[in-house]
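User: Before I run my own analysis I want an independent prediction to cross-check against. Here's the chain; please return only the structure tokens and, at the end, one sentence I can use as a sanity check.
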Amino acid sequence: MKRLTIISFILLFTFQLQAQEKERTPIGGRPNIKGDLFLDFGFNMLNNRPDELNTRFIASRVVNIYYQTQLPIGANSGFTFNPGIGFGLEKLAFQDNLTLIPDPAKGPNSSQLVPISEIYGENIRVETNTMAINYLDIPIEFRYHANKSDYNSGFRVAIGGKFGFLYNAHSKIGVTDSEGLSQKVKNSREYGLSPIRYGAYTRLGFPGFNLWAYYGLNALFEEESGPFGTEASQFNFGVSVALF
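Assistant: Structure tokens:
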């Protein structure tokens, strides 16, 4: 996560330098750069899952950082092709103080869902229980702009797809025992997760603010590698702001 934070600051600093070199609007607003740097905030849900894989809504969050360039399709048609790249940072928070651990019966790249008390003892208080799933994403979309004379203003709607490559997954657990001793443990493993993801998404709104949704078309876990043999897929949605 520290490496990702450093990379994100480098990207933001680079884009800021580019913005300062570009011509700005008279009131010092959006720089004249053909593209968008999106910061998405949202929630992560699982479709087609068994009841045991219920998640806590607020704690299962999503943050995406994407840069997408803008390639016009035709002259003043209102349509653009917008490929991009960025990071998809997601969390899953299972209910009932459950967490993922490897399943020896399935092999090293697998997972099962167990109570945290089976790992750290019965007389504990669970303070943190989340799982992070981080991707390098490639979003590709076709966008329609209602303002055909200025694509940097006015309402717009987009449909497209997203391909992601898993580069890190880890659980983070914080517990306090009956004697008041606390510990926080971070475990990085593969957990039987699919190394790639792909799905469809849509985005609509205005240049500075959008609503978005993503529907995963492949399973979150590899076949027979996840808990309960699940074929659960992802559904994400939220809001985003364009930093430029």
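Sanity check: The mean pLDDT is 88.
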